[in-house]
Specification:
Length: 69
């Protein structure tokens, strides 16, 4: 898994492949930034899906969460 901020995402050149999976699932805390990032990825030709309502709702709905150290 690769974490990239929205600012980093918009500055990456098109020759850089940041996604090597079938679909990138993009998530932030509430869904606003991930929506923007998903739109940007789609314009660049990537298959991207926004996780609606973000990690806050994901956690609230008792989906699994793994914390990295």
């Amino acid at each position: 898994m690769k974490s990239v901020s929205v600012n980093e995402l918009t500055t990456l050149g098109s020759d850089v492949s940041i996604i090597d999976v079938r679909t990138a699932h993009v998530m932030c805390a509430s869904g606003g930034r991930s929506f923007c990032a998903t739109e940007h990825l789609a314009r660049e030709g990537y298959d991207a899906a926004d996780v609606v309502d973000g990690s806050t709702q994901w956690h609230h709905d008792d989906h699994p969460v793994t914390y990295c150290t």
